[in-house]
């Protein structure tokens, strides 16, 4: 459910207003990059929250961890550095934590869809894919992955987040216009080289572009024109 204005415990002095940001922001809740739908301070504060951080669930169940009961926390527990079990990146703010198992999930990672379906191609979220190489890093296993139904394309959630962080300064410099995600073009080209036929290569590219677009959208908190522009520019090269 989306509200126009809300009060949030983490920023109690001012209301937060729902906006659609076309430039990247750092979420003041989970401390991760965001873009698109967010809640922004109605006053002069430079305060932003992902939708998932602004309207969290007190508890969360995830099918990958059926015995876990995740609790929303405003900061990671204890003094030991913690990492997200989905993307394998550090947890520095808001988190879903299971006290009994010790697992942690960034709010945006916790809400990643299990199935991505554009009507033609389906991508499934796996906890680990041991039989296929990631088309970005070339490794098996590792963090959560999206895999195509035909099993010809696999992309680590961690790799997508890594590409975003590598390109963070380019997104700011480009003002949300001509952004190139590093490594993706080579990743898709590598996948193409393993297949014969122009139609098959084109289809593989479409799968890769759609996978990247939706995974980035989910990690950042919402689909945005920036993401669509990024993917379109990659496919045209």
Automatic annotation (TrEMBL):
Alphabetized, the UniProt keywords read:
Repeat
**InterPro entries registered for this protein in UniProt:** C1-like_sf, DC1
Give the source's domain of life in one word. Answer: Eukaryota
The DC1 domain, residue ranges: 9-54, 71-110
A Pfam family this chain is assigned to: C1_2
Q: What is this protein called?
A: DC1 domain-containing protein
């Amino acid at each position: 459910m989306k509200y126009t204005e809300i009060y949030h415990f983490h920023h109690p002095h001012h209301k937060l207003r729902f906006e659609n940001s076309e430039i990247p922001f750092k979420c003041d809740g989970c401390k991760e990059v965001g873009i698109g739908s967010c809640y922004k301070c109605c006053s002069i504060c430079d305060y932003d929250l992902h939708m998932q951080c602004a309207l969290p669930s007190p508890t969360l169940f995830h099918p990958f961890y059926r015995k876990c009961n995740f609790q929303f926390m405003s900061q990671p527990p204890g003094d030991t550095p913690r990492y997200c079990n989905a993307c394998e990146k550090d947890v520095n703010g808001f988190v879903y934590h299971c006290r009994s198992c010790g697992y942690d999930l960034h709010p945006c990672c916790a809400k990643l869809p299990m199935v991505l379906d554009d009507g033609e191609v389906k991508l499934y979220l796996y906890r680990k894919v041991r039989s296929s190489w990631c088309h970005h890093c070339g490794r098996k296993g590792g963090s959560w992955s999206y895999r195509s139904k035909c099993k010809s394309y696999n992309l680590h959630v961690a790799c997508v987040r890594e590409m975003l962080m590598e390109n963070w300064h380019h997104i700011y410099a480009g003002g949300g216009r001509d952004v190139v995600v590093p490594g993706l073009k080579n990743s898709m080209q590598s996948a193409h080289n393993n297949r014969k036929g122009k139609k098959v290569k084109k289809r593989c590219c479409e799968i890769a572009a759609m996978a990247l677009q939706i995974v980035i959208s989910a990690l950042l908190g919402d689909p945005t024109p920036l993401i669509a522009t990024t993917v379109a520019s990659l496919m045209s090269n």
